[in-house]
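Minutes, project huddle
Topic: does the predicted pose make sense with iron/sulfur cluster bound?
PN asked that the exact inputs be recorded in the minutes so nobody has to dig through chat later. Recorded below.
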Amino acid sequence: MKVKKRAIIPKNQCVACGVCVKVCPRNAISIISGVYAKVDDSLCVGCGLCAKACPASIIKMEGDVQ
Ligand code: SF4
Ligand code: SF4
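Predicted holo structure (tokens), as shared on screen:
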């Protein structure tokens, strides 16, 4: 088993500013219906750039045991 880090975005706190979408090197984040950002876990490599860039500081990095 290995632990993969991934970004978690609480959608009820997201203001859909799109900053995380722009900084993600894997294009793993999309804005859904213009309302909130969603991470595609299969693309996210856990680099943490989105969490650093989010002006609302709502993105958390969490480990998933796979
Ligand atoms: S942690 Fe990195 S790869 Fe994952 S969504 Fe954020 S910027 Fe993209
Ligand atoms: S940077 Fe933060 S507030 Fe902006 S879209 Fe991404 S998660 Fe939402």
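Observations noted during the meeting:
- The CA atoms of residues 6 and 46 lie 4 Å apart.
- The chain has a mean pLDDT of 94.
No decisions taken; revisit at the next huddle.
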